[in-house]
Design a protein that fits this description.
Two copies of one chain form a homodimer. Chain A is built from no helices and eight strands. Chain A is mainly β. In chain A, strands 1, 2, 3, 4, 5, 6, 7 and 8 form an eight-stranded antiparallel β-sheet that branches. Chains A and B meet through strand 5, strand 7 and strand 8 of A and strand 5, strand 7 and strand 8 of B.
Amino acid sequence: MIRWDERSRPGPVAGVTAADVQGLQLSAARYVLEPDAVVPEHAHENEEFGQVLNGTLELTTAGTVEQLAAGDAFLIAGGIPHAARAGTGGCELLECYAPPRAPR
Amino acid sequence: MIRWDERSRPGPVAGVTAADVQGLQLSAARYVLEPDAVVPEHAHENEEFGQVLNGTLELTTAGTVEQLAAGDAFLIAGGIPHAARAGTGGCELLECYAPPRAPR
């Protein structure tokens, strides 16, 4: 069983806590974003699935902006630039990557 | 954006509603299990990540039984037999598969 809180560590940018698990075909990560935390635009070859677990997230994918709330999910093809900003209440986010994405 | 309720359909076994999205490298699915719904033991080559979103789940992986609650996650290697039973309050479950697993 994976308990995310046992794996939590500072994330790749300020205001983000990360936890991950690495498989052979995919990896998964849980991110906790503080209110208004920003993940700058980036891109990677790994396909990315995500779901908002709690709070809200503004997701920008290839220039298109969407407002996501708890229960909303998304799928980003490999190589597509994307960025995110947590809402004023912060955001808990679950993501899966294939092929596996190394922790950062 | 993916809204699971718009994709929901009867699942592979009684008492389970499924929704899925298919990528090129992974697929994701949201399952809603009625109280005490049983997913019989099965196995597949796809690696499987899962997280309980709401409720509880008894997960049996290669004969080992674990009790999962909301927020708990798991990773099952390809080819490993596994089965599940929802708790008395039912279970909402999010899963990712790599390579993508066709809807069933």
